[in-house]
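Risk register update: the risk of archive-format incompatibility is retired. Evidence:
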Amino acid sequence: MACMALTVFSATALLFQMTSCKKADAQTASCPVATYQVAGLWTGTYSVNSIPAQGQLFYSFVIYTDGTILTRGKGGDGKYYYSSGTWAVSGTNVFSATIISFVTPNAGLPITQSITGTYASNGTMSNLTWADTNNPNGPSLSGQYSSMQRVN
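Archived output:
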């Protein structure tokens, strides 16, 4: 019985040694680089072009496989604001979305925004910009997102 247990243990150790990747091997074909779909939770920050003193504020996307998106962003007033809409990725990895803000008491009318940037299957989105396409509450704003990271 001890001989059988030792044989199973040795075989398991050998199998693990043969199939595991070493950090140095991470770029070889035997150890594929992780790829991520666009659907999921993405977090980062955003800024407003006309209010640079406001700095970077928290922002997140929840992107669903059915083509819908929910967003949550912290405003300069410290409150969180939410939007929903639709998204797409073109054949050249251009991410685009159109979102409409949720209407809450004392928040005014809904604001429509467009988002564009570059999606990468390594779990990042970069060169992301946003712009109001319809803001009935005041001047139209625009800005950038930091490189958004997919939360796995």
